[in-house]
Amino acid sequence: MQLNDEYQALREAVREFAVESVAPVIGDFYERHAFPYDLIRQMGKMGLFGLPFPTEFDGEGGDYFALCLALEELARVDSSVAITLEAAVSLGAMPIHRFGTEEQKERWLPALCKGEKLAAFGLTEPGFGSDAGGTATRAVLDGDQWVINGSKAFITNSGTDITCLVTVTAVTGTNPDGSKELSTIIVPSGTPGFTVLPGYSKVGWCASDTHELAFDDVRVPVGNLLGERGRGFAQFLRILDEGRIAIAALSVGLAQGCVDESIRYARERRAFGRSIGDFQAIQFKISEMEARAHVARLAYYDAAEKMLAGRPFKKEAAIAKLTASNAAMDNARDATQIHGGYGFMNEFPVGRFYRDAKILEIGEGTSEIQKLVIARELDL
Amino acid sequence: MKIVVLVKQVPDSGAERSLRADDNTVDRATANNVINEMDEYAIEEALRLKEAHGGEVVILTMGPDKATDSIRKALSMGPDAAVHVVDDALHGSCAIATSKVLAAALAQQNADLIIAGAESTDGRVQVLPHMLAERLGIAALTGARKLTVDGSTLTVERQTDEGYEVVTASTPAVVSVWDTINDPRYPSFKGIMAAKKKPVQTLSLADLGVAASEVGLDGATSAVLEHGKRPPRTGGNTVEDSGDGGVKLVEFLATEKFV
Ligand SMILES: Cc1cc2nc3c(=O)[nH]c(=O)nc-3n(C[C@H](O)[C@H](O)[C@H](O)COP(=O)(O)OP(=O)(O)OC[C@H]3O[C@@H](n4cnc5c(N)ncnc54)[C@H](O)[C@@H]3O)c2cc1C
């Protein structure tokens, strides 16, 4: 697979940034469960948050594949900054770009594209994750205002100092067939009644921002409805289909980072008078790791290509996410094994990779849900 | 203000580098070639001046065809245009010859300010900025860790082993910078896309009116006669602490100018 010069140059620029600016400092943020504002600001200046958006809203005029390449190169070094970018762009700003009115786009997109502000995507609830159609949060029209009540769980980027809004999926009525009518509503940060609960204590992604959100008679103007009323379900399916390609790219990055670190360590570490890289058992492990990363990369390239060509890509995106998150998890396990006891120490990047890998099989659709999607696409 | 930034393509200093067996020049064919690190600081400084005072930033590179990769990368950071001096006869040019060629190219540019890195990681002679200033008959403010422009007055904090000196000159002038001067930006995707469309003028020796015999290996005023691998590291000094260990360590650091 040969990338064109621009994609290649972008990849190199992000790689340089990740190696020179992220790698030396991220361990400390991770340890303290702190959000790396300065890195995010630098990523904003590089235009990473505007990659797939048009220049008229201060975007970079690139495409979704460009975003995926950036995510891969970031995650090769660190997943917390990568997921912050992924959630901000593909979950946060993308619904506004895809479904928003001109007015909503003009109001929100420029600051989001520059990474000066972050948007969050509020779909999951304490009681409904995979079964997101079960949403219990309600929004009722009262004159020219929506009144929102309910709560959301595990919402990325929802509580930073630069978070400006969360898009909330809420029940706004009942469909003719008796099912819930879902709609998406923009809730700006700081709206009275909207409470951001303290951050979760997470196993991984420790330098990213995740909160539970509570909505208690939150009132927003009727104009904050995103897209058409009743289109909430279709909207989040579209956003999640795309998002799977981005999470696949991020997973490939982690899987490749495991290969990088393992090669480095296998050359350095000696046992029984030899480099451990001389043992075939270690070589074969690394060969398998490289193969997994490679195959998963081709899977996400393929899904992205189909999506950008306007062809159906649901199955390919699910395959990419399933394959890549498996690769990330398997590679993290093997890389940690290759590092022996040092792999179990937080100061080694593989320790972080190990902790960051598991969520990839859960977030934006669990592996089981990916299989469900693939099975449905096969008309099973 | 028109600023010309000198950009050189060099073999990656982080990787294995070698000299060619046939003529003892730097092996650029097999190396991973990148922008000389210090030049990225020169580009950043020029872009900041442009952002503050307006004007134009032009990249000037002398190097083989392959140097176009580094020119595009430099342009993706934000400069407006580039001039590439490329000629087979330039292979093996010494610093004096290089300064002759670059001075001829600069003479066509009418720059108010010429910014260069303080040294290149392949040659490391640090003389080029001085030579250019001499040839152009303008001031050289070298080794800057800070540069301010006020109208036509340039003020530079010149880094020295002991501290820094404040020197001023009026434009036009040559300024060379160290990596303490700023934090170079990373190219954005927009910048990468825009770089494709920016003008790159290629000039030959004939275009500059420089004779081939004055440059290259034949015209060189210095030559590498032989080269070999760096000898392996020796043991180093061990400081035994018999009460005066701390003092000895400080003395060592002082002789190495760390304290
Ligand atoms: C760090 C982090 C960040 C997140 N960020 C966001 C965010 O920004 N926005 C957002 O909206 N959400 C976010 N999420 C939520 C995430 O998308 C959900 O956790 C995920 O979709 C799974 O939902 P759940 O946790 O409710 O698990 P459940 O849906 O309760 O699943 C439990 C188990 O049952 C399985 N299961 C469920 N249904 C089926 C089925 N039909 N067939 C077979 N197996 C099934 C699942 O695969 C899983 O193994 C985040 C989560 C985390 C941990």
TrEMBL record, chain A:
Any idea which UniProt keywords this protein has? FAD, Flavoprotein, Oxidoreductase
Q: Which Gene3D superfamilies match?
A: Acyl-CoA dehydrogenase/oxidase, N-terminal domain, Butyryl-CoA Dehydrogenase, subunit A, domain 2, Butyryl-CoA Dehydrogenase, subunit A, domain 3
Write down the SUPFAM superfamilies for this protein, in alphabetical order. Acyl-CoA dehydrogenase C-terminal domain-like, Acyl-CoA dehydrogenase NM domain-like
The UniProt record lists the Acyl-CoA oxidase/dehydrogenase middle domain at 120-218
Native species: Virgisporangium aliadipatigenens
The similarity comment for this entry is: Belongs to the acyl-CoA dehydrogenase family.
**Domain Acyl-CoA dehydrogenase/oxidase C-terminal, residue spans:** 230-378
Protein name according to UniProt? Acyl-CoA dehydrogenase
Q: Which Pfam families match?
A: Acyl-CoA_dh_1 (PF00441), Acyl-CoA_dh_M (PF02770), Acyl-CoA_dh_N (PF02771)
**A molecular function GO annotation:** flavin adenine dinucleotide binding
Coiled-coil stretches, from where to where?
A: none
Q: Where is the Acyl-CoA dehydrogenase/oxidase N-terminal domain?
A: 5-116
Q: Does the keyword Cytoplasm apply?
A: no
Tell me the InterPro entries matching this sequence: Acyl-CoA_DH_CS (IPR006089), Acyl-CoA_Oxase/DH_mid-dom (IPR006091), Acyl-CoA_Oxase/DH_mid-dom_sf (IPR046373), AcylCo_DH-like_C (IPR036250), AcylCo_DH/oxidase_C (IPR009075), AcylCoA_DH/ox_N (IPR013786), AcylCoA_DH/ox_N_sf (IPR037069), AcylCoA_DH/oxidase_NM_dom_sf (IPR009100)
Flavoprotein keyword on record: yes
Swiss-Prot/TrEMBL cofactor(s): FAD
UniProtKB/TrEMBL annotation, chain B:
GO CC entries: cytosol
Identify the cofactor(s): AMP; FAD
- What Gene3D superfamilies is this protein classified in? HUPs
* Keywords (A to Z) from UniProt: Electron transport, Transport
Function, in words: The electron transfer flavoprotein serves as a specific electron acceptor for other dehydrogenases. It transfers the electrons to the main respiratory chain via ETF-ubiquinone oxidoreductase (ETF dehydrogenase).
- Membrane-spanning intervals of the chain: none
Q: Which InterPro entries match?
A: ET-Flavoprotein_bsu_CS, ETF_a/b_N, ETF_b, ETF_beta_N, Rossmann-like_a/b/a_fold
Q: PROSITE patterns annotated for this entry?
A: ETF_BETA (PS01065)
Protein name per its UniProtKB record: Electron transfer flavoprotein subunit beta
Q: Which SMART domains match?
A: ETF (SM00893)
What family, per the record?
Belongs to the ETF beta-subunit/FixA family.
Q: Domain named Electron transfer flavoprotein alpha/beta-subunit N-terminal: which ranges? A: 23-212
Quaternary structure (record):
Heterodimer of an alpha and a beta subunit.
**Source organism of the structure:** Virgisporangium aliadipatigenens
- What domain of life is recorded for the organism? Bacteria
Q: Give one Pfam family, short name only.
A: ETF
SUPFAM superfamilies linked: Adenine nucleotide alpha hydrolases-like
One GO term in the molecular function aspect is: electron transfer activity
Q: What is the lineage of its organism?
A: Bacteria, Bacillati, Actinomycetota, Actinomycetes, Micromonosporales
